[in-house]
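Throughout our pipeline, every protein is held as a single compact record rather than as scattered files. The record that follows is passed on verbatim for readers who wish to inspect the format:
___
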Amino acid sequence: MASKKKTRTVTKTRPSPERKQRGRVDRSVMFPVAPGAGETPAGYAALLQELKTRIRNERLRVVLVSNSAMILLYWDIGQRILAKQADQGWGARVIDRLAADLREAFPDMKGFSPRNLKYMRAFAAAWPDQPIVQRTVAQLTWGQNLALLEKLSTPEERLWYAARTLEHGWSRNILAIQIEAQAHHRYGKAQNNFPATLPPPDSDMAAQVFKDPYLFDFLGTDRPRREADLERGLIEHIQKFLLELGQGFAFVGRQVHLEIGDDDFYLDLLFYHLRLRRYVVIELKARKFEPGDGTQLGMYMTAVDRLLAHADDKPTLGLLLVREKNRVLVEYVLGGSTKPISVAEWETQLTRALPNELQGSLPTIEEIEAELSGDLGSDDV
């Protein structure tokens, strides 16, 4: 007798759309999509046509004149976007649509991404005065202008760094370093007696060459305790030291021998400033300023003028770099000198990281040696 086969009824369930998809689905993620043609705000088509005409007219100039024409074009685009947003209240999504349309119209031109259009808008807002843009800012690269926008907040600071960048030929990276080092607070701040020892044009130029303080972060966290250690560290990082000194300084030598009468003297560092056409003697002190420092430096400057300088060279300048100084004492010492001398402090990462009340409390090398010698002499064996 044949047995009956039991049949199983299998119910097929249709997989949900979510199970068909591989991987996780995050429905909270939204990708911006440029608004469709039907969603364009009033006046958009006219602006787009204006920009296309402006870009077509400037394409040849951008190729021929390159950087300055491109910067002025970016400024003009930013101004037009600002005007439309102010007059008609356009939102940020219009910039996405505008970027898509401009890239479609000019596929061979770069720089029309939504992010860059927003930079153009910020650039135009930061520089509302077109003559300043033409005279100064348009001479910088777009990358340098972005550094000014992102790292600085006031027009005065941006203009100061823009002018310095043109004067010294700073790259974008060097410009960023100078901004982080607060160069605008340090340039031209060193104490000096230049107005009394140099004619007016020369005194103004010389004053702008020196700064206060000088930052020697490239020496690391160590604080040099002796002048020889400080000098060695600066020479080992001569390229970074020259960058901190500023444009125009050419290194001549270290421990330069000067024979005065029957005595031998060695000045710490000797430079020549190409723009000022002068030697610059730099004396290093790993301690607080003392009145005799100015006298010693003045003697070295006289020796350089008489023994090394050419007849066409202008009188030597002196820069005294000290660990700390009393401004009133420096003023008195410089007031009694006939030599053009500047006095500035130097700092490292370690000392800047310390609270102000502790920076002057670190012992000197002489104090450490005296303490050690006292401890050794008092031991009872």
Notes: The chain has two domains: 42-184, 191-357. The chain is about 50% helix and 15% strand. The radius of gyration is 33 Å.
